[in-house]
Amino acid sequence: MRSLFVFLFGLHLCRPFSLSRSRQTRTLLFSSPRKTSADFYDADTLAGILDLHSSLNLGEVVAEEVQQDGLFEIVEKMSQNTNSRVRAIACDVDGTLIPRGSRVADSKSLKVVRRAIKSKRLTFFLATGKTRKGAIDSLVRSGEITEEELLGCPGVYLQGLVVVNSSGEVIYERRLNLASVAAAVEKTRTDGSGLAVVGYDGETILCDEMDLDHPGVTQLNEKYGEPRVMCCEGGLSNYASSFHKLLVIAPEDEAGIAAVDALRPKLEKLGLGAGKFEITQALENMIEVMPKLTGKGEGVKVLLRHLSLRGNECLAVGDAENDEEMLEFCSPSCTLADSSAGAKAKATYVMEESSGEGGAGRAMEVHALGFKSIKFVTGNRNKVEEVKALMADVEGVEFDNVALDLPELQGSDAVEIAREKCMLAAKEIGGPVITEDTSLCFNALNGLPGPYIKWFLEKCGHEGLNKMLDGFDDRGAYAQTIVAYCGGEGEEVEVFEGRTEGVIVAARGSTDFGWDAIFECGEGEGEGKTYGEMDKAEKNLVSHRGKAFAKFKEYLNEELD
To answer: Which Pfam families match (predicted)?
Structure first.
């Protein structure tokens, strides 16, 4: 077994890449297949190597000696670089879901979070420095997501020092030792001007009496949604059960931020020595004191092991220094346009959108949930607006229209015509596309005008279409829409039909949209009204187009999940 590992490891070392710690180098290697590897091996050799990688658990092959030599981290990263399907999402809260400077989460991103929670394929979890209660409360106040939805998720809280499963049970925790607490508090009191200290014991947040009214302490609850800070009887340094972490807080002004900047190197020096703690920072007016060898990244690793997942099966989304280890471990990982430079350097991708522009949600759509930008082939603005209204509640899909000069196909089979037209459009656009063919079929004329209604309407108008049925007892008709969807050139075309029965009448109601004014619906709540007499919502419930797009919507929801 060891010789097999050496063989595989040697193959990796032969590849033209550097094991530099630069994340930019790793981004080139690990985000998508590159031509270099394909050129380096012939197709059969490359396929064989990939098959070996798929069937081999490198974590079992490397023995203790390898881990001791520090190679386990390298092999772990290598094993993550197959393009595995994402099965989990780890997402930060402040600065990521909640935009910088805001108290309320971005609504676009939370809608995507709800979709991720509902997904049968994915496990969504928060990875935050906040308490579980504080994180959930701060997201719920937006009104876009419920407490029940978030409580059903596992999570990484307090910078990875508390990890819970989907039942809310703590499966991992780490605490500062009492000496570390005392040392950090004393250093802050002696060298920190105008700074307060709070201690986190799970959901309980405590401070010394002197800090209760400190503006930084009060904002933890008022701005960040954390549980209210209470007075610690006997002082933080004497708290019997110790704390998961300490938070050193300054007012949100230049003087406060300067005081934090001045204290940080002193705390770091203390932590390296007798203090036995380490420092991280998420916000510029706060320093977090944590046990050695801990952090949000470590908490994410613990939870992924609990879920039987690896780093390359988890999308991480974060924005700040305290997210860097998580962003480096997970693949893919994303940060946002307004994130810190350090976070951007560690992430696989930097989104164009900021935290306030739905950047976190966009990252989840693109790199985990699946996001489609679908072109609707039409130049008719009324159709575009109607379809956007019909598909408004489909999450993860963006619709835009494009006018293409496609050939007018002839034939008796409307479905096959629709398929062929959609394939031509997909080839022209080079991506996902929908086409729509609508017919108005008069029973007395054996289905005419049918798909040619557009030209009949242009030449005859509403009155002329009515006159076509003069002399016939049967003025019945049906409206039909065939929606065809193709995911791209060469892919199979899916077809969705909708049909509504009615009669042809003299024009009533709005005449702004095609032949709506002369088609009186004979079904459901719209019976007895022309389409032109209905408002948009009413028409969408009974119309041929509404029925076809309802079927298409069901298909998309299943495909995206």
So the answer is: Ham1p_like, Hydrolase_3
